[in-house]
SPT20 protein
Amino acid sequence: PSIPRHTNRLINEKSPYLLQHAHNPVDWYPWGQEAFDKAKTENKVIFLSVGYSTCHWCHVMEEESFKNKEIGEIMNKHFVCIKVDREERPDVDKVYMTFVQATSGGGGWPMSVWLTPDLKPFVGGTYFPPEDGVHHVGFRTVLLRIAEQWKENKDALLESSQRILEALRHTSEILVRGEESPPPAKEVMDTCFQQLSRSYDEDYGGFSKSPKFPTPVNLNFLFTYWALHRTTPEGARALQMALHTLKMMAHGGIHDHIGQGFHRYSTDQHWHVPHFEKMLYDQGQLAATYSRAFQISGDEFFADVVRDILLYVSRDLSDQAGGFYSAEDADSYPTTTSREKREGAFCVWAAEELRTLLPDPVEGATEGTTLGDVFMHHYGVEEAGNVDPMKDPHQELKGKNVLTARCSAELTAARFGLEPVQLRALLQECRQRLSSARARRPRPHLDTKMLAAWNGLMISGFAQAGAALAEQGYVSRAAEAAAFLRTHLFDPDSGRLLRSCYRGKDNSVEQSTVPIQGFLEDYVFVIQALFDLYEASLEQGWLEWALHLQHMQDKLFWDPKGFAYFSTEAGDPSLLLRLKDDQDGAEPTPNSVSVTNLLRAACYSGHMDWVEKAGKILAAFSERLQKIPITLSEMVRGTAVFHHTVKQVVICGDPQGEDTKEMLRCVRSVFSPNKVLMVADGDSAGFLYRQLPFLASLERKDGKATAYICSNFTCSLPVTSVQELRGMLS
C-alpha cells in the first residue's frame, strides 16, 4: 500500500469503521466535546455521518465523496465533520435516525445529517452521489446549498430545528396513559398471528416479497403461538409457517453453503441472492431459532444448520480471548491483483471454475457424469451465471453463481442414478474442495470490534444449542464468552457493563481511552444470555451475575413516570432525546426481551416486584401491542408468558448422577416457552437456596432424581418418571 497522503484524528480511535476513514482528506472528528466546542466557537454547522464498517453504501460514499479532495475541502471549510460508528454509539444513531425517518420517510446507512452547533438536526438523508444527476442532487451541491443557507437564513434554520425537535420529542414518547394495564394475551397473540399469516409467502416462506430478512423474532413468536395452540388449525399453521421459512432459508443463497453461517438478507423473494455481509447478531439469533426448530420437530436437518452456524462463528468470528467479533464485510477483492472490491466476490462462482475444481468422474452414476455435473445441478449453477440482472444493478455478479439448493438430495440422486447417502457424501466432498479454493481468495474485511449486546446474543445461541442438541462443547464455548465479558466488558468497581472492546496489536484486547458505557440493549441481551447459560450449565455464578445486572439495569434505565426502560441513561447533554425503541428490527427491542428477563429473574430470586415491572412495560406499550403487534412480535411472546405464568421446573438430585442427567436431557429437549429450569442439589448454603427458601422443602423421592413443576413457588406432586415429566412439560 502507498503511504497515505492525509491522516486525520480518527487515527487515534479503536473502531474499525472510524479507522477506515482516518486517511480521508476530510478533517473528521469523533463524536465528542472537542467537535462540539469547535462548532460553537466558529459558529459552524456540524455534518454528522453515521455508518458501520461492513456497510456497502458507506464504502461507496467514502470512495466517491470522502476521498475526493475537492469535496473534502468544501466540507472542511464550511462544516465541522463528525464520524460515528452506529454499532459503538447506537444512542447517537437512534436520535438522528428518528429525525431522518420522520422528515424524509425513509432511513438507512450511511446516514448524513446537518446539525446546528447545539446538535439540533435541520436537514438529513442517507447516501448522496457526489455530483448532480437527472433525478438527484449531488453531495457537493447539497453541501454548498446548506453552507449558503446557514450564512443567509441562520435564524430560520435555528427556529426550524427547534420546532422539529419538539415534534420529535412529542411523537416518540412511550408511556402509560391513565390506568392502563397489560393487554389481554389472547387478543394480542391472535392479532399478531393473523397479521403474520397475511404477509406470509406460501411458496418460499418469510413475510414479504423482497427484500427478505430472516426475522427470528417472528419465527420465535410462531413457535410460542404453536405451543399454546397445539391442537388447533391455527397452531398447526403457525408451526408450518416457521419450519417452512427456516428450511427455505437454509436451502437458499442467504445461507453460505461453502463457508457456513448466514448472510444479512435476501434481495429477492427466493432467498437466493443475498446482501453478503455476515453479522454476529444474525448468527446468534438464528442458532437459537434453529435449535428450537429441532426441539419441536426432532428433524436433524435443523440440528445440522445449528452446527453449521456455530462452526462458522467458532472459526471466523471468534477472538482467541473468548469474545466474538461483530461482522464480516460484503465486499472483497475478486483476486489478489484486483484494484477494486466487489460485493459477494468471496462467495460466488463461475461455472467454468467449478468444472475445473470438480472434474472427477462419479463412480456408479450415469456414464460421463463428473462431480461438477452433480454439484452444479444440485446448487442451481448456470453457465452464464444464475443471478437476475435486476438484482445486480452494478453488474458485480455478472457471469457468477450464488449457490442455492434447488433440489432435494433424493431428486438429485435419482437424476444421476445414485443413492441419496452416496450423493450426500459426494456433495460434502465438493463443498470441502470449494472451501479450500475459496481460502485462497482475498478475504472480506473483518470488523473485530466486540460488543456486549451482540456477544450476549451469541452466548444465548451457543447455550441454547448446547442444551437442545446435548452438545457440551457448545455450552463450554458460551461459558468462555461469558467469562470474556466479565473480564473485558464489565467494571467490577461500578458494577456496570461496558459497550465495546477491540482486538488490538498482537491479538491483545484493547479498550478505548474513554470506555463507552453499556446501553440498555447491552444489559438486556447479556442478562438473557446468562439465564440461558445457567440453564445449560447449572453454574449458579452466572445466575448471580444476571440478577446483579438486572438490578443495575433498573437503576440506570427505568422510567418511573411513564414506565418501561429508556434505551440510554440520563445525564448525557449531547443526547437530545431519551428514547424507547418501539419496533423489533434486526434484533428484538430491549423492552421486549426485558419482559421475559424480568419474569425469569423473579422465578430465580423470589422478587415479585420484577413481575410487576414486566406488567408495567406491557402497559406502556399496550396501544401498540393491540393495534400493530406484528411490529413487536417478541413483546407479544412476552405478553403470553406474562399471562400464562412461568413454570419453575425444579430437579432435585445430584447434578452428576445419571438419573438427574436423564431428567435434564428430557427438560432441555422439550420446547416450552414459559419454563425456567433449576437444580436443587441439596447445597443449602448455595446461591439458589438463599434466594428461594421453598427449595429446602423439596426432596428426592425413593432416593431418585425427582422433578417438581412449580408455579408462583407452589409445587406439583413429585415426578420420578421421565415420560411423565415430558407429558407435564408439553
